[in-house]
Design brief:
Chain A is α/β, with parallel strands linked by helices. Chain A is built from 4 helices and 7 strands. In chain A, strand 1, helix 1 and strand 2 form a beta-alpha-beta unit. Chain B is α+β, with helices and mostly antiparallel strands. Chain B has one domain: Cytochrome-c3 Hydrogenase, chain B (Orthogonal Bundle). Classes of the chains: A alpha/beta, B alpha+beta. Bound molecules: iron/sulfur cluster.
Chain lengths: 152, 360
């Protein structure tokens, strides 16, 4: 945590969750848990977001929406699945309309377990996502620099 | 006449905590018609009846919605209990009532916070959620879970609240009430809040009645409908009157929910005062459900209806739930027609939509 240099934007999307995890994600951003002290900030705009927090499984109706949100986010990006629904489909796994966890349509980096995931667990997930984001940005920067050198 | 255009609203939208899509037909800045389309969170929860037996289904039904999860589980259990024809112990009834009212407080505070965020009072939003955490702490203390607490079972409840915890709840409630009185002043008296809410999204009594609105939305339009008055669980022993307002606008809906928080605090106090001494928490259930039953209960958002049908097998034939938001969506479309485009976010929030419930 000590060498965090960037403040990523957080985007939250509710897949087909039961709301339990959503309100816990929101609770994380409010004063008692205050995830914003780790330098993240909530946004509603996917074009601006760096970390996607997704709750709930994927169903036939929202799979395109999730894919589109992911594609709209600029690189580098990190995806964090919150709650067992988003990890595997959870209690709803056997429902006819559930295709599975978030990783059925987009690559997921961090899995936060729990039903509902506790705020402490979610914050842990966010911190890991921030660190991963930092690493990816550095790699991305290095890549861009090398490309620049090659061109000159 | 201005030019007509259609603005798609959602599913992913900054003011919406949950995905719902509404097509707004607008003329200049005024909305002519609102066409909702749902299905983004449809899971097919009711279809699990043939994969989970009727005991396991309690935990699935609870996850219909994370905000009123306790009442969902309770509604299902009570419906199955009436199929069996059993009466749960009195203490279990009181415990169910206490937990129901706690989840009402946390749900209404959550909503008040979202509303405050909707009209641009970020600090107020955080204050509401700060107070809500105190209620969640009480819930966690007594059940072990924060939002999904799984304390219902068919025939009673799984956990007891011991005497010292009941006393702790009472003292916490005093502190919560004191905090609430501070934010109440802003919600009720503040000039900006009033100018954002008064006269916005009026739903007349006739409209609310004809469209079958439920819960605080109906009560804010002057319909005195509260399923708790039907007298399930411990409610017949408690003294309360539904909170009704006649204005039918957003302010009235805010007022009703705010006052219901105080009412719930009072109900918990009464319930703790009258709770019978320690006894069994559940009755034994023998055999499998055979028959059908309806159960209606008052959730934070209004009346929910549960239907179960069994034919003597471990798996039910049918389970169905009608949730309050589903009843309130036609009312929302009515409110949106004729509203300003800039009020849409606020109006959607005022019916306290719970899309997860609606789409299951
Ligand atoms: S993991 Fe549990 S609490 Fe979270 S969305 Fe799924 S069912 Fe709800």
């Amino acid at each position: 945590m000590a060498n965090i240099k960037r403040s990523p934007w957080l985007l939250h999307y509710d897949g087909s969750s039961c709301n339990g995890c959503d309100i816990e994600v929101l609770a994380c951003l409010t004063p008692v848990y205050d995830a914003e002290r780790f330098g993240v900030m909530n946004t509603g705009d996917p074009m601006q977001a760096d970390i996607l927090l997704i709750t709930g499984g994927i169903n036939t109706q929202n799979q395109e929406v999730v894919k589109q949100l992911y594609d709209q986010m600029p690189r580098p990006k990190v995806v964090c699945a919150v709650g067992v629904c988003a990890c595997t489909g959870g209690v709803f796994k056997d429902c006819y309309n559930i295709l599975g966890g978030a990783d059925t349509v987009i690559p997921v980096d961090i899995y936060v377990p729990g039903c509902a995931a506790r705020p402490q667990a979610i914050i842990d997930g966010i911190v890991q996502a921030v660190e991963l984001f930092q690493k990816r940005s550095e790699e991305h920067d290095a890549l861009v620099k090398n490309k620049g050198k090659e061109a000159s | 006449m201005g030019k007509r255009s259609i603005i798609p609203y959602g599913p992913q939208h900054p003011v919406l905590p949950e995905p719902i899509h509404i097509d707004l037909v607008i003329e200049d800045e005024r909305i002519i018609e609102a066409i909702p389309s749902v299905g983004f969170i449809h899971r097919g929860l009711e279809s699990l009846v043939d994969k989970r037996d009727f005991n396991q289904l309690v935990y699935v039904v609870e996850r219909t919605c994370g905000i009123c999860s306790f009442q969902h589980g309770m509604g299902y259990c009570e419906a199955v209990e009436s199929v069996f024809g059993v009466e749960i112990p009195d203490r279990a009834k009181f415990l169910r009532t206490i937990w129901s009212e706690m989840s009402r407080i946390h749900s209404h505070l959550l909503w008040l916070g979202l509303l405050a965020d909707g009209f641009g009072y970020e600090n107020l939003f955080y204050q509401c959620w700060r107070i809500r955490e105190r209620v969640l702490d009480l819930i966690e203390l007594t059940t072990g879970g924060r939002v999904i607490f799984s304390v219902n079972k068919i025939g009673g409840v799984l956990k007891d609240i011991p005497e010292d915890q009941l006393r702790h709840i009472l003292s916490e409630l005093d502190a919560i009430e004191a905090d609430l009185n501070v934010i109440k002043k802003t919600f009720i008296e503040d000039y900006t809040v009033q100018s954002r809410l008064r006269g916005i999204g009026i739903l007349t009594r006739e409209q609310a009645h004809d469209l079958g609105c439920a819960g605080p939305v109906a009560r804010a339009s002057g319909i005195k409908a509260d399923m708790r008055k039907r007298g399930y669980d411990a409610y017949p022993h408690l003294d309360f009157e539904p909170i009704v307002s006649n204005a039918g606008d957003s302010y009235a809906r805010c007022y009703c929910r705010l006052m219901e928080v105080f009412q719930s605090i009072d109900l918990i106090r009464q319930a703790i005062g009258k709770i019978p001494g320690e006894s069994d928490l559940s009755v034994a259930i023998k055999g499998n459900p055979d028959g059908e039953a309806f159960f209606r209960c008052e959730q934070p958002r209004g009346e929910a209806v549960y239907y179960v049908k069994g034919s003597g097998k471990t798996f039910l034939d049918r389970f169905r739930v009608r949730t309050p938001t589903f009843a309130n969506l036609p009312g929302l479309c009515e409110m949106l027609a004729g509203a300003e485009l800039s009020d849409v976010g606020l109006l959607v929030i005022t019916i306290d939509p719970c899309i997860s419930c609606t789409e299951r």
